Amino acid sequence: MNSISTMITTTTSTTKAATMSESKISARNVQVFYGEKHALRDVNIEIRPRSVTAFIGPSGCGKSTFLRCLNRMNDTIASCRVEGSIGIDGENIYDPKVDPVQLRAKVGMVFQKPNPFPKSIYENVAYGPRIHGLARKKSDLDDIVASALQKAGLWNEVKDRLQESGTGLSGGQQQRLCIARAVAVSPEIILMDEPCSALDPIATAKVEELIHELRSNYTIVIVTHSMQQAARVSQRTAMFHLGLLVEENDTDKMFTNPDDQRTQDYIMGRFG
Amino acid sequence: MTDITAAGIPPAETQKKSLLTLDDRTRRRNAAEMRFRMMGKIGVLIGILALVGLLTSILSNGLSSFQQTFITLDIHLDPARLDKSGNRNPEEIAKVTTFGYAPLIEKALSEAMTAKGILGNGVTVKAAAELISKEAPADLRNYVIADPQSIGQTVSFKLLAAGRIDGYYKGRVTMESAKLDRNISPEQLLLADKLKSAGLLTTKFNWSFFTAPDASDTRPEAAGLGVAIIGSLYMMLIVLVLSLPIGVAASIYLEEFAPQNKFTDLIEVNIANLAAVPSVVFGILGLAIFINFAGMPQSAPVVGGLVLTLMTLPTIIIATRAAFKSVPPSIRDAALGVGASKMQAIFHHVLPLAMPGVLTGTIIGLARALGETAPLLLIGMVAFVREYPAGPPDGFFDPASALPVQVYNWTQRGDPAFIERASGAIIVLLIFLITMNMVAIILRSRFERRW
Ligand SMILES: Nc1ncnc2c1ncn2[C@@H]1O[C@H](COP(=O)(O)OP(=O)(O)OP(=O)(O)O)[C@@H](O)[C@H]1O
Ligand SMILES: [Mg+2]
Fold this sequence. Notes:
The structure holds 2 protein chains of 2 kinds.
Chain A: H1 13-19, E1 25-34, E2 37-47, E3 52-56, H2 63-69, E4 80-88, E5 91-92, H3 100-106, E6 107-110, H4 121-131, H5 138-151, H6 155-158, H7 171-184, E7 189-193, H8 201-214, E8 219-223, H9 227-233, E9 236-241, E10 244-250, H10 251-256, H11 261-267
Parallel strand pairs in A: 3-8, 3-9, 6-7, 7-8
Antiparallel strand pairs in A: 1-2, 1-4, 4-5, 9-10
Helix pairs in contact in A: 4-5, 4-7, 5-7, 7-8
Chain B: H1 2-8, H2 24-62, E1 67-76, H3 79-82, H4 90-95, H5 98-116, H6 125-129, H7 136-146, E2 154-160, H8 163-169, H9 175-179, H10 186-197, E3 201-205, H11 208-211, H12 226-257, H13 262-276, H14 279-293, H15 301-325, H16 329-337, H17 342-370, H18 374-378, H19 403-411, H20 417-449
Helix pairs in contact in B: 2-20, 5-7, 12-15, 12-17, 12-19, 13-15, 14-15, 15-17, 16-17, 17-20, 19-20
The structure holds adenosine-5'-triphosphate and magnesium ion.
Adenosine-5'-triphosphate is lined by residues 34, 37, 39, 57, 59-65, 77, 79 of chain A.
């Protein structure tokens, strides 16, 4: 399973990341292989705290792959191999001493398709805090669940039916439930892989609004196929193409006057 | 894209076709579908007919084994015969063999006949006593040994009628067949009819069929499934306790943790092969390893249970792995995403979702094990066992029989009464299987309702 060979490429990387106090996440020379396939080439990026960073790019360019590197979800894929280093708060998460389970409590994830547990709404949100021992008493747990659902903007819709199945909610509600579930373990970073691709425009608007609110407390990285969405929710945007990080820039600049020709072409809809 | 469509296929309006008439393609397609449906229906029908045929033949042969003919007599437990010294010493009483009890029954029968005014019509008292099972004196003796204080009293007993008499009332024995039969004469049958009209001879529900041990060839009326049922229950217990945890643990490891390499592929192929190995082979293995090498006792449920466990494991592993595979990976991702460890993700989320499949697999495996005969023959479970095994766990090492083996055994006996018993045993076996399936269904719905 653990075919990930971890390499700390440069001894200076950690100190360098620490000095750049601006960035929450700093990736250095990240290479990802699926077996023989070289999916990501030499990605370097700094992601700022308490802001939204959007990943855009044509299908198959490696956005999800890179996102999954940030909480080591790639560990679950047997053929996947990651090289380089990714620092979070100056600590390399691919250091052999790091336990990915502990890491994932700090870096939450919301998936493309809403995937609530086939359990009650309450259980969905309470599961994370419970396994991490965040609540001593039942009442503490109740508070955590309520506040997570409030943060996810779902509280008013479900407060009277917390014991009903999470899978019985609508798609948009399910996705917000998944966000509540991620928020409940008090992560510092939330990764979202196309969180709105299965939702209708109204549900999408709600999730976007939610992302907007969450930004003040969390570092958010979102993969999206919608330029408008990237423009609406993010402060920084990173453009991937064929496994390369082509450009990373302020969102405003990116969508008005990108530095790279490929970004320009992609935004104009010439490929992808 | 649009260009190609426009050039290649003419616009819809130019193909002038009414929706009200079927074109050739549609008609052929519909005919093919009809044929397929017919074939399916025929298949289902054949299946149902086979099932109905099987059930009617078993039920018509076997249901009568749940009824048994009894002769009720008031027997004076004569102290002069049973306890000559008169001190009710159990050891002395135990010295009186069944031969000492037979005259008591004879006497009680002739007294009852006199009282009811039934004439022997040339049937001697000794011949009249042949209407009663040879098992009856033994039953009487067990009663007295269990309760020595009853000596001297007159007690009403429900005694088994002889196998031929029982057969007479179940249509197996007729006047014609009795003429040729050394064991019974037409006169004895006439006497039985008289006893019946006098109310001494009755047909009642046969509890002893479920509780009594097997009986010798000459006493089919006394043969019961007691030891076989206990043996089968013990074996099922062993199979369940061993194969469920081992099977599930092995599947979880193989499915979720084991690295994907040549070695695990090899293991996988071999598990599939093991599932297809004929059960006799497991019997030989059990004989060689558990009995000859490990020195475990023959005919013991523990050996049977171990052999059946080996046989059931591949089935359970394959079913469990399939159940694990069918759980959507998004559930695993969700659990890992909130920081659950792999094991937590599996035990909190994947296993509960896979549980219905695991249970079904286990019950199917158990049901197969319950009906398995061949390997048990090889490890000596076919022995004639009259003694009940002790309670668990000691009883696991005592000789016992098993339901399917008992069926096999009874079909080998000469007396046609044993065929009835065998069919009755099959019914009991089927009831066990149906009960197990019901339990599976109930457990499954219980697990599903939780979400
Ligand atoms: N589990 C895997 N095994 C092998 N190759 C994979 C695996 N997952 C992704 N890839 C390959 O890695 C490359 C990047 O895939 P990735 O899923 O990161 O793309 P993406 O940018 O998220 O695309 P999309 O926008 O369609 O989601 C693709 O070429 C893909 O085929
Ligand atoms: Mg993707």
